Amino acid sequence: MDDAVALLDQGQEGKARKLLKQMVKRDPDDAAAVRLLESLSADPKQLLGNKSFSYRVHPGDTMMGLSERFLGDRLNFYALARYNDLSVPSSLKSGQALQIPGTAPKMVPRAAEKPRAAVASPPPTPSVPARAPVIVDRERAGALRGEGLAALHQGELAQAVVLLHEASTLDPGNAAIKRDLDRAIRIRRSVKARQ
């Protein structure tokens, strides 16, 4: 399953479709494989719904993470990518606008502040657009790094790359994770070159 997910994340739909068909042939009750295979051919609007809301991609967001967060299932990531006409889900960029199926989550209002005494305000300064804060989850990134390294040592290269990529998006400044991800990608490329 992880190989098919990694192939889809990289936009290699043909290879993923072939692998998923083999999986379903071996085990017709493999609900995850059946659902992923369906996400390749079904109309994403019929699959996920016509009603949607706008979302601006933040640093660290992945299609799998957004799918888990807003759709309740990370395996809907490829259908979500197709919903947004993205052929390579891993190419998601910070600041990119997406349509997310469903209803926008309610914003929680900030607690009311106490009124302040009137103070002369300084002259306005030119506004500089605020940058979206980088959401860092070092604990989750460390756990994903461990899983990715374990997969790498077991020869599950595609899974290792996906896990290390997710870890890197959760802790973008972590040099060790970046180094491990680069290593996993190099190993995967050299294995593919030999095949």
The residue fraction in helices comes out at 40-55%
Mean pLDDT: 81
Q: What are the low-pLDDT stretches, counting only 5+ consecutive residues below 50?
A: 110-115, 127-132
Round the Cα radius of gyration to an integer and report it.
Answer: 20 Å
Instruction: Please give the order of strands in the largest beta sheet.
Output: 1-2
> Which structural class is indicated by helix and strand composition?
mainly alpha
Q: Helical segment tally? A: 9
Backbone shape? globular
Largest sheet: 2 strands, antiparallel
Spell out the helices and strands N to C: HHHHEHHEHHH
Distance between the termini: 21 Å
Count all strands and give the number.
2
How much of the polypeptide forms β-strand, as a percent range?
5-15%
Structural summary, described in words:
The protein has about 200 residues and is mostly helical. About 55% of the residues lie in helices and about 5% in strands. It contains nine helices and two strands, in the order H-H-H-H-E-H-H-E-H-H-H. The protein has a two-stranded antiparallel sheet. The two termini are about 20 Å apart.
